[in-house]
Amino acid sequence: MRNASATPAIAVPEYEVYALRYATRGGRRAEHFVGGDPHDGEMPMDYFVWVVKGPRSTFVVDTGFTAAMAAKRRRTFLQCPVQSLAALGIQGDSVTDVIITHLHYDHVGNFDKFPNARFHLQERELAYATGRYMKYPFFAHSFEVDEVVGMVRLNYDGRVELHNGEVELAPGITLHPTPGHTAGLQAVRVHTRRGWVVLASDTTHFFENMTTDRPFTVGFHLGHMVDAFRILESLASSPDHIIPGHDPLVMQLYRPPEARLEGIVVRLDVEPTSPAPASARVRR
Ligand SMILES: [Zn+2]
Predict the structure, then answer these.
(1) Which of 82, 109, 202, 281 has the greatest count of CB atoms below 10 A from its CB?
(2) In terms of C-beta density within 10 A (0-12 exposed, 13-18 middle, 19 or more buried), how is residue 136 classed?
(3) Gap from CA of 203 to ligand 1 centroid (Å)
(4) Closest Cα partner for 48 from 199, 235, 215, 271?
(5) Neighbours of ion ligand 1 (CB under 5 A)
(6) Contacts with 274 (C-beta within 8 Å, 6 or more apart), sequence order
(7) pLDDT per position as a tens digit, 247-264
(8) Is the whole model's pTM more than 0.90, yes or no?
(9) 45 CA → ligand 1 middle, Å
């Protein structure tokens, strides 16, 4: 006779998660909050890709941009993210699954360096990036048309999985629409040894966008941006499990896996060295 207590629970795999910092730029606080900031001062921005490494499968989350794009957009390039992946023992041509959180230039460049991967994207993001709003520079500015067309070509090659809503890619890794910054942005929820970590990507650029409910200055729908902060909170085991898309604090809160990767890679599936600022959010 079987009952629930006699059925062994199937353990959800625990993944290792890494942030790879590949570029940076100077910036000011007023550039990063709709409505500006009364205490304007310096607020630099980092650029990341992420890796989710499991017992059976590895997922690359976003692909960054190239040195040439850094020059064009006046960003400070640190190291090609594909080179950083190799430093972690992951070769671009061995990657089978790439998650693209959204199609902005800083998240989808380098896609050609993953010749054997399929790309996971929300269908709504491709519709947005090829749709009516792209005639307006405000919305089009953060896209590179050649990269958007490149993704269309990959789709014709059968290499794009266009998802509609939440999807489980493997046990312990799921994608969740968090629109607002773009129409089809998605966040990634990952099971780790410290619980459920959420790679927010640009759902929140900095911890502070989320903790103060102030949207970032590039966006499609401000209300949805703020709603998406709540989605992140509902998905993560705690506020300390949310990883913003561009916050230099990530490099301070988390440790490199090896000393030689200092300043380039940090490990996110181990506890932060101090509580993330998200813990101290001011509730309404
Ligand atoms: Zn971004």
Answers:
(1) 202
(2) exposed
(3) 9
(4) 199
(5) 106, 202
(6) 253
(7) 999 999 999 999 999 999
(8) yes
(9) 10
